[in-house]
Specification:
The chain is an all-alpha fold and about 210 residues long. The protein has one domain. It is about 80% helix and about 0% strand.
Amino acid sequence: MLLSLSVRMPRPVTDLAPAALALLVLVPLAADDPDVGPTASPTVNAALLATGALALAVRRRYPAAVAAIALLGGQLPLAVALYGLAARRGATRVPAVFAVLAGARLAYPFDPGDLTELSALATVIEDPLVFGAVPLALGLTAHQRARAVAALAERNRLLEAARRYAEERAAAAERARLAREMHDVVSNRVSLITLHAGACQVAAAD
C-alpha cells in the first residue's frame, strides 16, 4: 500500500533552502575547481555563484531581476530562478526571453569542434535541457495549477454566495407568507369580535 504524504514547509525555509545549498556546497566547489563556472577564475566563479545564490532569497518578490542575476551565476541558482519566474509570470514574454538567454548561457562555453563527439554534443544539450527547459516547464505547470486553484476557489465563493442569497430569499418569502396568514387570521378574529360585540350591545339594549 502506497502512502502519499504531503509536507508543506514554512515559506522562509523554502525561500532560503536553495540559497543555503548553493552557498554551502556549490560556492566552495567553484572556489576549488576552475571548471565550475563561466570564467577561468575560481574566485570569480565563486563570487558569481554566491551572488546568484543570495539573490534567490528574494526571488518571490523580484523574479525577473533574480533571473537576470542568476544568468551570471551557476546552474542551480539559474534553474531555481527560472522556475520561480515561470511560476510567477506564466507563459508571458519575460519568461520566453529568459528561456532564450538561459539556453545560450547554459550552452556556453563550448568548443564547436567538440560537437563531432557524441559525448560533447550530449553535454551541450544536457545543461540547457536539465537546468533551463525542465525548470521552466515545471514553473509553467505550477503557474497553471495555481490559476486553476484560484478559479475553483472563486467559483466556490460565488456558489456559496448564491446559496446564502437563495436561503435568505426563501426565509424572506416564508416570513412574508406567515405575515399574510397572521394578518388574515387576526383580521378574521377582529371581525368576529366586532360582530359579537355589536350583537351583545343590541341584546343588552333589548
